[in-house]
Specification:
Layout: E1 8-13, H1 17-27, E2 33-39, H2 42-52, E3 56-59, E4 62-63, E5 66-67, H3 68-78, E6 83-88, H4 93-101, E7 104-109, H5 114-125, H6 133-136, H7 139-147, H8 157-161, H9 165-175, H10 180-187, H11 191-205, H12 210-221, H13 227-230
Parallel strand pairs: 1-2, 1-3, 3-6, 6-7
Antiparallel strand pairs: 4-5
Helix pairs in contact: 2-3, 4-7, 9-11, 9-12, 10-11
């Protein structure tokens, strides 16, 4: 959240009006967020995103005539600063993979508790990548799908070339699944310094998450064996319950 008095502005996109209205009512009880708009299909969502410029877009994957993951590029173009949090019933690893690589910052199932959803919205807004626990075990498969190029093309080579030598080293470690703590140990630098490097890497590559960075690095640098399947999204074994590591 920007500050204690500014709630995060939300656009809710779901084709089921009953679910959409219920979700909006539930979110109304959360003072840290405010729903500024809603949409029932991809076209309406893109127009609303362009007009409202929300902070976070809650996006269902099953929309009339188009998958939510296919609507992601248009939504990101309409509202470049908005972060997209998928909220769907799909438990398919392929959907998870495609969503993350097309620009989604997180992926939650609709069975999520409203309190967890509100906290996930806040996490997404500050640059983290929350994933439903039910989907965490499918990250390895999703990572393999992405490495095979099934979901997207790699970042342009010139973007990789814009990275400094240290950033390239850190990107390669991210692709192998190393946490910030491990990277700091490898290069004998502070963990806070690693976090700054990661933020610079994501900005230069025009990516939203460590998942995307890991996949692009694996495809372009030839990294990604072993631990990457264990920790494609930056999961830190030192965090409780296999939590997602913050940038």
């Amino acid at each position: 959240m920007n500050n204690a008095e500014t709630p995060i502005r939300i656009l809710v996109v779901d084709d089921h009006s009953l679910f959409r209205r219920g979700l909006i009512e539930l979110l109304a009880s959360e003072p840290r967020v405010i729903v500024v708009g809603e949409a029932g299909d991809a076209g309406e969502a893109q127009r609303a995103a362009l007009q409202l410029q929300p902070d976070v877009i809650l996006l269902d994957n099953h929309l009339p005539g188009v998958e939510g993951v296919d609507a992601l590029p248009g939504l990101r173009e309409a509202a470049p600063r908005a972060r997209v949090l998928m909220l769907t019933v799909s438990e398919e690893a392929e959907d998870l993979a495609t969503a993350l690589m097309r620009g989604a910052s997180g992926y939650l199932l609709k069975t999520v508790d409203i309190g967890v959803l509100a906290e996930s919205i806040i996490q997404v807004h500050r640059g983290e990548s929350p994933i439903s626990p039910e989907m965490a075990g499918k990250l390895a498969k999703a990572y393999q799908v992405l490495r095979q190029g099934a979901a997207t093309t790699a970042a342009p080579r010139e973007r990789i070339d814009s990275l400094s030598p240290r950033e390239l080293q850190i990107l390669a470690e991210i692709a192998r699944g190393a946490s910030n703590k491990e990277i700091a140990r490898i290069f004998s630098i502070a963990e806070a310094t690693v976090k700054i490097h990661v933020q610079h890497i994501l900005r230069k590559l025009n990516l939203n998450s460590r998942v995307q960075a890991a996949v692009h690095a694996a495809r372009l640098l030839g990294a990604g064996n072993g631990p990457a399947e264990r920790s494609a999204a930056g999961a830190d074994p030192d965090l409780p319950d296999g939590g997602q590591e913050r940038l």
